């Protein structure tokens, strides 16, 4: 077998590149998170402080607020996206004509850059000249009010990512065998029964995949929040990603920023492993 | 009407309403991009106005927005090319060739999909500063490869696994060897998938914001940075920024619709075939 090593040669470059670009920076981050190191003060050298950054992290009220905001954001955004996405996917599924065109238009929001999505909504919700204000005759500064900013950001997320949920759930519905529906119609089952007994159980894997990807990606939300509210007003829309960014690139507190980025990494991996274990048990992922 | 018909009517209504919700923000910005300031900042929204090309003239003239578009193109092409050249052979190895610890490697690559950009950008900033690569295209291409390479590997692996094994075995009998079977049989047969994968990589790179924000320099800033800089300023130029947004969206719509069939697979890392 002269080709025994071929697989390794074909795989090696990719693994080395991932090692250099992802694993090395993460290890570097983990290492430096044990130092007190601020870039604004050149005279002050890096100082080994052990776990001090992590003790600080768990006692930092901003981290608490940011995590709470992030959790609210994830729960509401993903929850609304899942319910709305299911309804629209089912409606698409019932359609007899125009499904292709509807599909093509529905996917548009999710391929637009989040920064541009932010711009669209910044103008749509402008208190003075925005379409929403003009059509309703109100002048609400959605992104400027402490108790409205987070709901407004959630609406932006729902706009951008419900299409993703629709496409996946719809694909799941299309893969259900026709004979199951025929059997149900012979039994005289109505549409609600068909959805409850056949469709929903059949698309459980797709629902779980949606939950995995949306949770993972919403948890790390950055772009739209950065553009629309910068975490404000006050700390009302501060997220953990934004706080990490600010610690590193506004305060230049690199040691602490690295500890925060390790915190994000570890929490994301814990959440994802939980989902992935569920998915593997149901043999959705290998 | 029968009960069944009401379901169909209701479905069209639901999809119609959802399409309205999807399209209104996009159409609003597209209209703003061809409106004069007086029409944008009028007290009531109107559809009757004289279209103007001034915003585009300004954005492509004095604001030279095309620099951002060119930078985005360079970075997207660079990162896509690197990810495809390195990722496709790796995907084939994981799908077809005897590799020790194959499942373990596949999972390691999936793990890299979970790593949030914000966790990587802090150490990358310091490392690239040390290497004096901050502000270069190289830094951006490298950063964008961190999400594009895993996507290429997982997506192409799913395409290779769908090929019937007999075809490659036949090629090997012809004396092509396994690498020959990869080059001459597997690769051409998966070329639609490969094209879609490449398109998705271009798309993800084109839209990426955080790495570009931290790692790019004055000369290498990409389109999202350009658009964000329009929003950040105190006196927001609605017409100009809308024109910029439209210019940034057009390539995305073309690419996205071209890869429509494989979009779901790409976004779910090959988990949903779509």
TrEMBL record, chain A:
It is a multi-pass membrane protein. InterPro entries: MetI-like (IPR000515), MetI-like_sf (IPR035906). CDD domains: TM_PBP2. Its main location: membrane. GO terms for cellular component: plasma membrane. It is found in: Cell membrane. This is ABC transporter permease subunit. The lineage of its organism: Bacteria, Bacillati, Actinomycetota, Actinomycetes, Streptosporangiales.
Automatic annotation (TrEMBL), chain B:
The chain crosses the membrane at residues 7-31, 68-92, 104-128, 134-155, 185-206, 243-264. GO terms for cellular component: plasma membrane. Residues 69-259 form the ABC transmembrane type-1 domain. Its main location: membrane. Keywords: Cell membrane, Membrane, Transmembrane, Transmembrane helix, Transport. It is found in: Cell membrane. InterPro entries: BP-dep_ABC_trans_perm, MetI-like, MetI-like_sf. Pfam families: BPD_transp_1. One of its GO terms (biological process) is transmembrane transport. It is a multi-pass membrane protein. It comes from the Bacteria. The keyword Transport applies. Belongs to the binding-protein-dependent transport system permease family. PANTHER family: INNER MEMBRANE ABC TRANSPORTER PERMEASE PROTEIN YCJP, MALTOSE TRANSPORT SYSTEM PERMEASE-RELATED. This is ABC transporter permease subunit. It comes from Herbidospora solisilvae.
């Amino acid at each position: 077998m002269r080709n025994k090593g071929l697989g390794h040669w074909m795989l090696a470059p990719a693994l080395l590149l991932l090692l250099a670009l992802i694993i090395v920076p993460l290890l570097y981050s983990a290492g430096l998170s044990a130092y007190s190191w601020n870039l604004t003060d050149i005279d002050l050298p890096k100082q080994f402080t052990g776990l001090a950054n992590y003790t600080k992290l768990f006692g930092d009220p901003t981290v608490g607020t940011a995590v709470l905001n992030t959790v609210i954001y994830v729960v509401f955004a993903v929850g609304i996206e899942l319910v709305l996405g299911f309804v629209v996917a089912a409606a698409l599924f019932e359609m007899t004509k125009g499904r292709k065109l509807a599909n093509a238009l529905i996917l548009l929001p999710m391929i637009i850059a989040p920064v541009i999505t932010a711009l669209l909504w910044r103008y749509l919700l402008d208190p003075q000249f925005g379409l929403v204000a003009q059509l309703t005759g109100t002048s609400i500064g959605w992104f400027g009010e402490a108790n409205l900013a987070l709901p407004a950001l959630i609406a932006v997320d729902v706009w951008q990512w419900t299409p993703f949920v629709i496409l996946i759930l719809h694909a799941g519905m299309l893969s259900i065998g026709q004979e199951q529906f025929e059997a149900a119609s012979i039994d005289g089952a109505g549409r609600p029964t068909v959805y409850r007994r056949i469709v929903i159980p059949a698309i459980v894997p797709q629902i779980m995949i949606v939950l995995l990807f949306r949770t993972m990606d919403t948890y790390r939300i950055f772009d739209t929040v950065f553009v629309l509210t910068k975490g404000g007003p006050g700390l009302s829309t501060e997220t953990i990603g934004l706080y990490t960014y600010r610690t590193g690139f506004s305060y230049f507190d690199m040691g602490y920023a690295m500890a925060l980025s390790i915190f994000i990494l570890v929490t994301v991996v814990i959440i994802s492993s939980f989902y992935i274990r569920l998915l593997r048990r149901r043999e959705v992922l290998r | 009407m029968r009960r069944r018909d009401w379901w169909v009517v209701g479905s069209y209504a639901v999809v119609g309403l959802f399409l309205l919700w999807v399209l209104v923000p996009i159409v609003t910005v597209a209209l703003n991009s061809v409106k004069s300031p007086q029409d944008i900042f009028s007290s009531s929204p109107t559809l009757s106005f004289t279209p103007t090309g001034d915003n585009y003239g300004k954005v492509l003239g004095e604001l030279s927005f095309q620099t951002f578009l060119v930078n985005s193109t360079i970075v997207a092409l660079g990162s896509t090319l690197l990810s495809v050249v390195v990722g496709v052979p790796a995907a084939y190895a994981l799908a077809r060739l005897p590799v020790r610890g194959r499942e373990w490697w596949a999972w390691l690559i999936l793990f890299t999909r979970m790593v949030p950009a914000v966790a990587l950008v802090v150490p990358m900033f310091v490392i690239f500063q040390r290497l004096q690569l901050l502000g270069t295209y190289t830094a951006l291409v490298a950063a964008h490869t961190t999400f594009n390479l895993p996507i290429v590997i997982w997506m192409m692996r799913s395409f290779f696994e769908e090929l019937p094994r007999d075809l490659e075995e036949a090629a090997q009998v012809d004396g092509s060897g396994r690498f020959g079977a990869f080059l001459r049989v597997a690769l051409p047969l998966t070329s639609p998938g490969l094209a879609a994968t490449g398109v998705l990589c271009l798309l993800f790179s084109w839209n990426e914001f955080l790495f570009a924000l931290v790692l790019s320099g004055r000369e290498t800033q990409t389109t999202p940075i350009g658009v964000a800089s329009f929003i950040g300023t105190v006196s927001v130029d609605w017409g100009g920024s809308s024109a910029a947004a439209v210019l940034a969206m057009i390539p995305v719509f073309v690419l996205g619709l071209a890869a429509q069939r494989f979009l779901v697979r790409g976004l779910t890392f090959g988990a949903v075939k779509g």
